[in-house]
Amino acid sequence: MEKLLHYVWKHRLYDSAGLSTTDGREVEVIDPGLHNTNAGPDFFNAKVKLGGTLWVGNVEIHDRASDWNAHGHDRDAAYNSVVLHVVGNADAQAADSHGRLVPQMVLAVPAYVARNYSELLATDTYPPCYRIIPSLPPMTVTSWLAALQAERLEQKTEAISRRAGMKAGAWEEAYFATLARNFGFGINGDAFEAWAMNVPLGAAAHHRDDPFQVEALFMGQAGLLQDEAISPRHRTEAAADGYLQRLRAEYAYLARKFGLSPIDCKLWRFLRLRPQNFPHIRIAQMATLYHEGRTGLSLLLECRSIDDVRQLLATHVSAYWETHYTFGSESARNPKRLSGQSLNLLAINTAIPMLFAYGRHTMDESLCERAFELLDSLKPETNSIIRTWGECGLKARTAGDSQALLQLKLAYCDRRDCLRCRFGYEYLKRGKKVKN
After folding, report:
1. Hey, is 396 helix, strand or coil?
2. Using 50, 70 and 90 to split pLDDT, how confident is the model at 79?
3. For 73, which of 45, 79, 246, 266 could close a Cys bridge (C-beta 3.0–4.6 Å)?
4. Where does residue 167 rank: exposed (0-12), middle (13-18), buried (19+ CB within 10 A)?
């Protein structure tokens, strides 16, 4: 329950009357301090009065007082500035590295907070705080969703920056890898990113004018031209597939020329995947985009509206793939263009985060502002998570809202991290007695 004790101290959810140290001095909390999430005491620069004397320093919190010694604080000079040791159970005394006894205070978690916290942890219904959502003040909802939206964009920015770092700071390649990852539309995202990081764009640029060579390089680097990548029931037809044989010959030439090697074809997943999302189709679509010169970051930076983004990313497949979903298996003719919903998802998960991340990198606030504006101009995503929030009384009005709700579910609800959630705070303080 130590996390809950931290929470009660930080948010002052305790009865301030009658607080005293274990040696009988009255305690008045002026400022609980700044919560420290790194090494060292739990709260910095707290202000407390002990027996009428004001102390300014740090506060350490433990479930049991004996944890002070168990954690080695009695030998660590970083804890010599602790002016108050807040504990749930004073089962021992605490002394700093100079032997000075540290004042201790037992802090009880109010019964209503403990009860509410237990309810949040025990509730199987998602989300745990669903009972209070309809009664939340609009300002609380709006401000928390705005913070969550920014948090999600920051998270995606970190991933994009990591890709740029892996490519020696090449943001063009980071954009290509980010776009590729989201062409995986979830299930094959990791494989698409691994593939994109394995595509030598510098080499591919020499053959950009030839769509067949681009497709050969892309399919070859994905490992999809290998026999083991072809379903056993289609291998006989594939062996007689002239287009596949031409691709293999072209890739063999390019591989020798540039020293290429494919990723493991076993990375690709097909189980319960709609044919439209097969990696062959998505890579063929990306090959078209690349051949037409529409995967460049500079073109994305010129986009001013969602329609601009959609037009930039709208793509199709080459003639062969209009009648195939995999090698050796023909299907009815279909141009296999990206749907409006797919284009919206690419805008939400690729274009907008890229604008935000590059804006941060170049310190161009206008790009960051444009990212938020584009999110607010899009309709919300439709999936089971967003529908569930709607049933609880939280309806998404824009894609910004739906991104915030996804962040809330994935980063807080799934982890039962209610103590960091503003809705969790509202739930925990239910039943608190208000003084007249």
Report:
1. coil
2. very high
3. 79
4. middle
